[in-house]
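Standup, Tuesday
Yesterday: got the pipeline producing structure tokens again.
Today: sanity-check two examples.
Blockers: none.

Example 1:
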Amino acid sequence: MAATPAPAQAPPKPTWDPRRPQAPFPWLRPTIRIRLTLLYGGMFLIAGILLLSIIYLLAAQAISTGNQPLFRIVSFSQGSQLKVSSANCPAINATSLSLQDFNDAIAHCVDQQRQEALDNLLSRSLLALLGLAVIAFAFGYAMAGRVLSPLGRITRTARQVAGSDLSRRIELDGPDDELKELADTFDDMLERLQRAFTAQQRFVGNASHELRTPLAINRTLLEVHLSDPHAPVELQQLGKTLLATNERSEQLVEGLLLLARSDNQIVERKPVDLAEVATQAVDQVHAEAEAKGVEIRGERKPAVTQGNGVLLERIALNLVQNAVRYNVPENGWVEVDTEVRHGQAVLTVCNTGPVVPAYEIDNLFEPFRRLRTERTGSDKGVGLGLSIVRSVARAHGGHILAQPREGGGLEMRVTLPV
């Protein structure tokens, strides 16, 4: 009986390598290094050739000028007297010169003509060098901008992606060099990020539906049972406890979903006045503040910023709610101010309350962290308020700063761009 052949195994998948396969002759690739080398070397060679040509022409002109006769003999006698005429050497135009005086005048004239030729050659060479330098700098600036233009395109795309526009791609054309490899790798990274963020948004949407629906059903059932007047007292007490627990779970789910949504940059922005947002938050917390005996005050000046009104209202609401809930038992107050300071919209919430050590300020912004309390067992919230505030502020390009007040309480300052 023949043995059954083993099934063929699939070949192993090659690991992903961002580098492209090398060309047969990699030294012939028009890479950015080769192009810059050719550019700088060519510019140096052309500038040297031009400078040498100009110096050669100037030297030739100086030599041709120097070949002209310095003097001509006008008359000559049998004695020792010689009469000459010269336009370049006025010193030998005397009526009669001895031989020694004539030689001295000729030597001085030759030295003078040589010095004038050198000075003329130097001045013209410097002017030529200056002109070539200006041309070289201008040409180099233009060529460098052309060679580095792909980097500008990559930078602009990265800046657009920073605004949560992950659909942007560089799609760089041109030779297969280091810049194109960088652009292709960046595009591949953007593709992966877009898929990841799309999956995250889909998960948040599904989780929102899957988590809210059973909690809403539980709340409805509990409210129906609590509405029965013939229900036992023990059952009503249990129903109220379960209803409070269910409400806490709903708040936790809403906070987590809001925290997940607000981690990204805000794409659609509209003018939002922080004064109106803070006033709405104060109105919503006013009844709770009166019940706790907390006075809400402050001056809310117009401070318009660009962002999402719902998320900015959640910032103000969370800060004011925390300021009211974590306050002193008697004679407490909360001060809510808005203003434009140093070209930025500022929302400030101060309150009286327990003394907060400075080293615990950063912990307050972590999810599920409260001051000197456990993760569970507190009826003041779910521990996501300040985390949501920080996340929303960052999504709007701003930041939040918390400082402990003398005597207790905190000063929360949210700064947003105008």
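Example 2:
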Amino acid sequence: MKNSIKAGTFLVAFLVAPLLLASMVIDFRSFDHEGYTRVVLQSERSFTYKVQDQPGRLEVRIAGRADFPARSKAVPNSVLLERVTCEYQGNESVITVHFKGGAAIKKNFVLEDPFRVVFDLVRSELPAAVPPRTDGAVSADEKKPDPPKENPPAVPPRSDGRRGTGTPDVPVSQDREAVPPRSDEAVPPRPKPIETICIDPGHGGEDFGAIGRSKLKEKDVTLKIAFKLKKLIESKTGLRVIMTRDKDSEVSLNSRASIANNQLAQMFVSIHANSSFRKSAYGSETFFVSLQATDPEALELAQKENQNQENPGETIQNDELKMILWNMAQTEHIRESSKLAEFIQNELNELLGTRNRGVKQAPFRVLMRTAMPAVLIETVFISNAAEEKKLLSDEFLDKIASAIYNGISKFIYYYGSLVK
């Protein structure tokens, strides 16, 4: 009996030991936006961490042993970052991000699937960053903010990782309310750096979209590209990405815009595959919304995309269009949408080697109700036999997703200059 107990104990220890000794792989990425630098620590599983914001560096202490790419790694071409190092102190792994000058944490939050800890850093003119709390630093589990300070030199991260309202975040403790702005100074609302992007895979469900000669359906192509684009954005920038559909389901045009608006997205990208009665038509097009179409082909395409599967007889009144477009013009979304379309179209031309059909305007219903910069991309022509064959290749879909991502990335830099 005793021998069997010992054998059982040994077996449990044998099985558990590898779990205790297994290191946790953590990837480091950084991305320079206009006005701030984003740092992302990603792992295949969640971890508890503490933050210490020291002069000239950011220390992230992680419970357990982290398998980091290198003990010391330079961060080339970064505005704020010099290098990142990893060392082991007792039962902790200490990942240290070294700054080129003064810098401070503007925001810190956690994203899931995969698990990512994200820091937004801004340049600081102070000789030293805000000192850490005496009881350590914020952990992923507790996320208790620092006590409010009078006239804090840097905006600290929100304790709950939620989106703000467009004005600088203020620390909140459980027994004190947020520190109000001084009565003698105005705090005007400002646009926020882009944090959430909505990807809209066109069509779905009973709405097949265009169908190629080999019976390839537009709805399937757009969903594949959307997933690839989502993965690129999340892995390279750490931004939050939502999708209007993540399976073969039918979503109305109004609902697609509502999803983006309700989730407070700051960019809307609708993905489609083009089609034409002219089988020789080829190339990519990127649209932003306008009451007047660029040309008859653009108008015909918009009318086709605007068909309401739930109510095929429904039409859009010109008065409604004018009201929506006027409202968009007031918030400068049309100008921003034009720039986003331009960046994406240039990348499609360069990376895909397709004909430049240009940036165009048309009254697309799915774009009209979005309260953010919004574009509709007609990737290539599924009605063209040669381009349909390309759409059957995962490698080609990867190129399309990469081109769209590069355009989005350039727009993020541009948009950042507007929110300074």
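Quick observation on example 2: Residues 1-21, 127-189, 309-314 have pLDDT under 50 and may be disordered. Residues 24-175 form a domain with the Immunoglobulin-like fold (CATH 2.60.40.3500).
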